[in-house]
Predict the structure.
Amino acid sequence: MTTALPAYDDLEAAYTLLRPMVRRTPVVEVAGGDLGVAGRILLKLEMLQHTGSFKARGALNTVLRMPEGTTGAVAASGGNHGAAVAWACGISGIEADVFVPATSPPEKVRRIEAYGATAHVVDGYYAAAYDASRRWAEGREVVAIHAYDAATIVAGAAGVGIEIGDQAPYARRVLVPCGGGGLYSGTALALRDRVPVIPVEPQRCPSLASALDAGGPVDIEVSGAAADSLGAARVGDHAYAVARELGAAPLLVSDDQILAARRVLWEQCRLLAEPGGVTALAAVLAGLVDVRDGETVVVVVSGANHPTIPDDVVRPVSS
């Protein structure tokens, strides 16, 4: 079965609809030498988006396009999508029920509830929460909002790419964290034929890489430091179709490299992102991307929903 991908007109229409309600997140330059590369690095700070991640874009685009009279929505999420759905439904006066795996940080559950949704915590990772949400929705008049594999989610996330195209038209490459693939596919479609968009996955959650190896999306085991935000056990059909069509080759980074990137981001910029949010930056710091002198590479920092400043990021400085 062929997945129908949103056309560029669909992406522009979504961006126009959302523009008055979402933030045009900034790009911040970090000197390449501070990151051990020769070229120029621009950080696209989606961590400053409403609800603390890029997920607000796709969730709001989906909610605004629900059938008239919709009163209830259901979603499964590692946390960020759930907060975004809760926020978007709150704006629209729609009740939201969000299923979250017990492996997600408690702070993410509290944020979902703070935005007015009902959180249901289930054992396991995202796949278990998704299955539970589908069972709960049976017989109820609610609209399901998928975390990453829906045309409205992809079109909403494409706003990240549209903004990058305007903010950094000279970029040679764009790197994005990839879990289920909504951010990757939206950004890649928005920048298609302009600049390559490279998905970066945790080694312990390689859903896109596994799909490309297998010739289609497959179920995988997920775990690790970034599993709460990038722990999709099966990559989305949209992301797989985009990656196949554009010939993408995902980069894989280890937990140690991800946590090191968090420390560097804090030390260099005083920005605290969640592990999944710095996965693309980890690829640069690990030397997986050749950033040459005179080149500009954009790195998307996708989320910042972490409850505290952990010891592995900030260590006391002795006086």
